[in-house]
Structure prediction request, 238 residues.
Amino acid sequence: MAKLDVKLVAVPTTTQTLPQQYRKLPRVGNHVSINWQNLLAAKPDVVYVDSELADEYQAKLKEQKITMKALDLQTYPHMLKTIKYLGEKYGKQTAAKKLIAQLQIKTVHRKKHPRVLILMGMPGGSFLAMNNKSYLGELVEKAGGKVVGADPHSLYTSPNSEKIAQANPQIVIRLAHAMPTEVEAAFKIAFQADPYNQLIAVKNHHVYDVKAPVFSPTANLQVNKAYSQIKEWVNQVE
Prediction:
């Protein structure tokens, strides 16, 4: 919204640094705990919600006669389409085209495709394997890597130890979705046991812990930084 210079009436409550023009606006909580009093007081014409969370808020917003629009940021192409949509919606087509141009990434063509396992850690110690259709999986494959160890039919699945051992990834990317200190500690414990401690990625020290704002489960404006970093890792084992 800031890149397109769209006026807002309220913003989420966040630990991230907000753009200058939005810092004095009312805070309406986050996706875990909405401050409905502040949200309603802002009298928005529309509330934009991540498509993954839309079902949680649809009924409540409808009850308050507030229009809700889900924005799809699940993958890199979806993010570009969302930017284009917002540019058209608010008459900011020029700014949208400029932003989309800045976010372009080029696919790398390689003869060899290093095997990459992507894990997303959750608070509490559990984690999920991300496939090649997830946001980070898509970046890995654009960089010339091959995503392994995940279910090809589901973006996020519980890791299958046998499948991971068989795939024997050369690179492991471990994403802390929230509470990075706790999640990274859980990853370290898990990687001291089979099958992880036997992986070639572990033996060759190609295991990387990543977190927001550069890395996330869904697409964001840090895509160029994330992609450059992934290309660098893939190059190391080419």
